[in-house]
Amino acid sequence: MSEQLTTIQASNHPIYFNQKGYQALNAHLEQNKYTNLFILVDSNTNEFCLPRLLPQIATDLTIEIIEFENGEIHKNIETCVQIWNVLTELGADRKSLVINLGGGVVTDLGGFVASTFKRGIDFINIPTTLLAMVDASVGGKNGVDLGNLKNQIGVFNLPVMVLVDSTYLETLPKNEMRSGLAEMLKHGLIFDQKYWEQFLDLEVLDFSDFDALIHRSVAIKNEIVTLDPTEKNIRKALNFGHTLGHAIESYFLESQDKTTLLHGEAIAVGMILESYISLEKQLLTKAQYNQIKTAIKAVFDDITFDPKDLAPILELLVHDKKNEYGTIQFALIDGIGKIKINQLVENELILEAFKDYQS
């Protein structure tokens, strides 16, 4: 693992990499006179990641572990209420600190819990999945799902630091690694053609230097978020693949006869569909589109859509948070490495994209 990765300065907090992060964490605990320390984990990170974290923390503070069941299905307000109650029972106050140790569900929900408890207490994100490292832990979006509608309830609020330690990835199943890869591919497609091209032949990708790829992905996301913290403008670029991807993810989550998709699996489909739409709107060449479709399909299994699936998926687009004035706004790619936001797309073209995806 490369240890020399530079610390990335986000708008008001640092993002540390590997061992340097634990030194910074301990220095932070010493400087800030916290009353107590809570570590939020889910059932997976309690078992696989907490044993790595605890020996790294040097503090006299009382450390309380709060665990909830893992899975997107628990990313809801009921879980938050349970955690707020536990914090209250354990004597948390305005000077308590929460460390969120986990994937996107833990960092999204934990950030929301901390941001709203007593009108906001400090929190630190230690992402343990590839997806959370390159996406959920950066940018200050915290929140929970409302039924099957993703991230409908939430706040923008920043952690006091983020600590990315790639050794946690050793405990991650292959499908979860792939899920995170989807967001890295997206960062290349919307912002950095050279970065995208590093993923074109995954057979020869040097995983010993995977840390450098993670670092670049975090840097891209941070650069975009710093320009537009509350998503009024360029931050919408990060929604590429997500307008249709989120609708697909929600539909598969609520359908009895469908296997639930991981976030990255749904986003991979969304990126192919939205690349097709970009092609039809003459923003991409046929060669570029084929390159994107081939590269993504080489990593991700095909998802099958029945004709009856499409109407409910289109229906879910209406609830997308990116909509304004009742119109559905897409972020489309304008060549590889550039983006066009606020693009309107008619339903016929979306259905055509699904047809092409399945061909």
Number of domains: 2
Coarse shape: globular
Query: Can you tell me the CATH topology of the largest domain?
Result: Dehydroquinate synthase-like, alpha domain
* Mean pLDDT level: 93
Tell me roughly what share of residues is in helical segments: 40-55%
Number of strands: 11
Low-confidence stretches: none
Largest sheet: 7 strands, mixed
* SSE topology string: EEHEHHEHEHEHEEEHHHHHHHEEH
Strands across the major sheet, in which order?
Answer: 1-2-9-6-5-3-4
- The total count of helices amounts to 14
EC number: 4.2.3.4
GO molecular function: 3-dehydroquinate synthase activity; metal ion binding; nucleotide binding
Domain 3-dehydroquinate synthase N-terminal: 66-178
Organism: Flavobacterium crassostreae
List the helices and strands and how they pair.
Elements: E1 8-9, E2 14-17, H1 19-31, E3 37-42, H2 43-48, H3 50-53, E4 63-68, H4 77-89, E5 97-102, H5 104-116, E6 122-127, H6 130-136, E7 141-146, E8 149-156, E9 161-164, H7 174-191, H8 193-197, H9 210-227, H10 242-254, H11 263-280, H12 286-299, H13 307-317, E10 329-333, E11 339-344, H14 347-358
Parallel strand pairs: 2-9, 3-4, 3-5, 5-6, 6-9
Antiparallel strand pairs: 1-2, 7-8, 10-11
Helix pairs in contact: 5-6, 6-7, 6-9, 7-9, 7-11, 10-11, 10-13, 11-12, 11-14
